Amino acid sequence: MSLEEPKATDVGEAPDGTVDYAELEALLGDAVIGREEHVNAPAFVVRPDEVQEALGALREEAGFDYCSCVTAQEYEDRYESIYHLKKYDDPTQEVGVVVPTTRDEPISQSGEAVYRTADWHEREAYDLVGIEYADHPDLRRILLPETWQGHPLGKDYNPEKPQVVPFRENANPLEPDQRGDGAESDTMFINIGPHHPATHGVLHVETVLDGEQIADVEPDIGYLHRCEEQMCQQSTYRHQIMPYPDRWDYVSAGILNEWAYARAAEDMADIEVPEYAQVIRTMSAELCRIASHMLALGTFALDVFGDFTAVFQYAFRDREVVQDILEDLTGQRLMFNYLRLGGVAWDIPEPREEFFEKVRDFLDGLPKKTQEYHNLITSNEIFQLRCVNTGELPPEVAKQYGATGPVARGSGVDIDLRRDDPYGYYEELDWDVITEDGCDNYSRVLVRMREVEESAKIIEQCVDLLEEWPEEERTIQANVPRTLKPDPDTEIYRGVEAAKGELGIYMRSDGTDKPARFKIRSPCFCNLHTLREMTEGEYIPDLIASLGSLDIVLGEVDR
Amino acid sequence: MIPAQTQTPLPDIIGDLLGFGTEMGPGETFIASFIGAALVGTLMLTMTALAGPWAKRKITAAFTDRYAVNRIGPAGLLIIVADAVRLLSKELIVPEGVDRPAWDLAPIVIASSALLGFAVIPMGNGIHLADPEAGLVYVFAVASIASVGLVMAGYASNNKFSMLGGLRAVAQNLAYEIPLVLIAASVVLFAGSLQMSEIVAAQAETLVSLGGVAIPSWYVFVNPFAFVLFMVANLMEVGRNPFDIPEAPTEIVAGYQTEYSSAYFVLIYLGEFIHIFLGGAIIATLFLGGPAGPVLPGILWFIIKIWAVFLFTQWARSALPRLRIDQLIEVGWKGMLVLALANLVLTAVIVGVIA
Fold first, then answer.
1. Which is nearest to A328 in space by CA: A341, A318, A338?
2. Which of A108, A334, A353, A477 is most deeply buried (CB count within 10 A of its CB)?
């Protein structure tokens, strides 16, 4: 980083690294018709026909190169799309762009031309809420079937009404089998998934092949859509929402997900978490990260090696140890439900020494195992032949698609919310953010493997702290009211660094004990969007490898 | 020196036992040959039955820290029976629009082509069906028929994944077959014959004597370079990792065999394993002295050598990532072919100058 030319400060960036919102407002000029205060950052209300201009100015002039999320919602009198913008260099510099549209004519200009990632986000907004985006290149439903009647998160939606769709209208994903330019076409259309050995769940990739090479891919998602946002909107802040995050990224990243909700809700209700609980959270979250990365490594090896080989089993064997530790701590192996608003559910299990010894045993054995993986996987010539320079994702493209987590860091984008937007106890600990400049499948694997080592460092320091912690100061839970009712119209968007990248939560309160809008910004959703960029012109095996290196969990993509 | 290596072909021995006399008529020859072929075929199919449902699982499990089958019978051996019943009792699903009879013939072609190869392999203790002068050429010729079967299966299945698998099989076949034959040709230069029994006999001579132990002139000792090349080419031939590209479960589901179920699936599966064993038999004959070996009878040595090659293929399967199809073609044409040619020229020079 130090070798780069010193960058001229962006418009609206104060010398101390904060955002000068008055200057931003001046930059946007006439497009702005108002200003809203969200808990995370102020937001400008922008006219629906000036969206591209406003976003363009914020991106080009003010340096907001990261469109984290697009939230859509319906009020009694209007629709609203909120673009949550950040900077990759400093994600604490945030700004929201609120675009209201009338209920009669919910048409808003698309932001896709400025941020590629808005493509899928806006399709989701159209699908679930019903806002239409002018100039959007491909405004189709994304999660629900093409034939769905109505928009489920809209106010007029009647869930009682059966979705009766005649069979002839029901889109059959296998039907358009012979696509291309007619009989003379050299390309072949092939459906990879939804039932395929290497799609990591029910993902359907519509692929056009030119021989063995990929001419075009189009991920078709939504097979695992479980209305998670709606379920959260029908649950109380205090207790009922917390079990759901475990079910988003369900492959052992549970506590990381729970933290995303905990952080957003705690910031919204202004709850201070005791330090001791923060250390426990940090430790358990990093254990989850190790388990999740182990699985990513194992399944990626499975995709490249081609069978359930030794590597996959070894990765699972080591992941099992982490699972045992997490089971001791939380009582669960998959759906942990361990965090609470204002703390954690319970303290380290007694006898504490035994638990710490178990963790330490695992950490002591880890370097040897990592070396084993390096011997078996990353230093294997065939593996390198397969992974180096395949599935390339240049950093600029990664940013355009809002990629985060190991996918972004494998492309040399230095972003990690644990460091850049600190929460928990990370700030006090000594660890590094891993980046690799290869931009290929190999780099992404390497990033994950090295992150496991960093996580181990964090856990070790947490264990040291917890062991020394005086008994009378072990507060695991802050004082939180039995029923949580944030002030009406409090809005917040907060993200944490989950296993796959930035897992963000947007919540709006209407004064009741349930959120009026609950939006999940899933890292897998955005990362999967990059698949086309990574695979065009490559071979089928590279497509499979790239998909594996993205490490998507369909539960989180579809929510 | 070399244990019981009779030069009489197996059908003649059987003819003798049946009392047909030394001069057998066509009918008698047919009966004797048929019994001999049935014996050899049964032996190979039994080994396949052991390898497919049981040994393969056990070997892979050993590599991956698992137990594998251990519920039915001693060490899980009866899983072979259970699996056979399970597979054969499944419904044979014939997909719409398959190209019959090619679709029905493909499994039979795949399974039988490999079996045909064993006709000329000397297995020791007189188990040797036929010994034509061009035995080696015959083995490669019939082993290659399997590729026709793969293409038939891939093309006739009316499935794009099968189609891709079939096309990959052809590409792979072209890339490995030429180096394979060239390496075998270097052995022929040493032995001076294409006849299998002659090749085995040529390896019986003593190469060097180390402390009273005679090391025979097996071609693995004479020309280890050719042996390594042949092992790699053989992996390509039998389509095991890292060269299992025509099947590639994670990429193209199961390649040419995607649409096959029940008995047809068993036949294809069987064909693959017989192919591995045929590969092992060719390696044993060309490089490991055929059935030769101390103490134990020849047929046992022969089986041990075949299983050693089988173990090697399973080891590679557990440890190596799969190559990409274009990389395989590159390895085949730019690497293997050049090395095989170099090996052939080198052998020719050595044989020409020294011998």
1. A338
2. A108
Looking at A149, A171, A193, which one is the last position of a domain?
Answer: A171
Is A1 part of a structural domain of the chain? Answer: no
Shortest alpha-carbon distance between residue B248 and chain A (Å): 6
Is A244 in the same domain as A106? no
In this structure, the answer to whether residues A415 and A541 fall within a common structural domain is yes
Question: What SS3 class is residue A268?
Answer: helix
Are A143 and A261 members of one domain?
no
Q: Is residue A47 part of a domain?
A: yes
Looking up residue A84, the CATH number of its domain turns out to be 3.30.460.80
Q: Is residue A218 part of a domain?
A: no
CB pair distance less than 8 Å for B321 and A382:
yes
Q: Which of A188, A190, A383 sits opposite B321 (nearest CB)?
A: A383
Residue A58: give the domain boundaries. 31-171
Contacts of A212 in chain B (CB under 8 A): 164, 168, 325-326
Q: What is the pLDDT of residues A303-335, one digit of tens each?
A: 887 776 778 888 888 888 999 999 999 988 888
Inform me whether the C-beta atom of residue B66 falls under 8 Å from chain A C-beta atoms: yes
Tell the burial category of B84 from Cβ atoms under 10 Å away from its Cβ (0-12, 13-18, 19+): middle
Tell me the CATH number at A237: 1.10.645.10
Question: Which residues in chain A are contacts of B241 at CB distance < 8 A?
Answer: 305-307, 309
Q: Which residues contact B308 (CB under 8 A, 6 or more apart)?
A: B280
User: Are A160 and A232 within one domain?
Assistant: no
Residue A161 lies in a domain: yes
| A523 and A411 within one domain | yes
Lowest mean pLDDT across A6-10, A305-309, A506-510 = A6-10
| Pick from B244, B250, B325: CB nearest A212 | B325
Kindly state whether residues A154 and A233 are assigned to the same domain: no
Collect all residues from A whose CB is shorter than 8 A from any CB in B: 188, 190, 196-198, 212, 301-310, 312-314, 317, 376, 380, 382-383, 385-386, 539-542, 544
Q: Could you tell me if the ipTM is greater than 0.90?
A: no
Helix and strand numbers (H, E) in chain B are 15, 2
Asked if B90 reaches chain A (Cβ–Cβ under 8 Å), the answer is no
Domain end call among A153, A171, A189 = A171
Over its length of 355 residues, how does chain B's per-residue pLDDT go in tens digits? 344 444 667 777 777 777 776 677 778 778 888 888 888 888 888 888 888 888 888 888 888 888 888 888 888 888 888 988 988 898 888 888 888 888 889 999 988 888 888 888 888 777 777 788 888 889 888 888 888 888 888 888 888 888 888 888 888 888 888 888 888 888 888 888 888 888 888 887 777 777 777 777 788 877 888 889 888 888 887 777 777 877 777 778 888 888 888 888 888 888 888 888 998 999 988 888 878 777 778 788 888 989 999 998 888 888 888 888 888 888 888 888 999 999 888 888 888 877 6
**Beta bridge partner(s), residue B216:** B206
**Pair A394, A439: CB distance under 8 Å:** yes
Report the SS3 class of residue B53. Answer: helix
- Contact state of B160 with A188 under an 8 Å Cβ cutoff: yes
Cβ-Cβ contacts under 8 Å, B323 against chain A = 382, 385-386
Q: What is the DSSP secondary-structure string of A337-360?
A: --EETTEESS-SPSSHHHHHHHHH
CB contacts of B318 in chain A (<8 Å) are: 307, 309-310
Residues A347 and A429 grouped into a single domain: yes
In chain A, which residue's Cα lies nearest the Cα of B251? A541
Peptide bond into A194 cis (omega under 30): yes
Same domain for A165 and A263?
no
Ramachandran class of A368: left when φ > 0, alpha when ψ lies in -120 to 50, beta otherwise = alpha
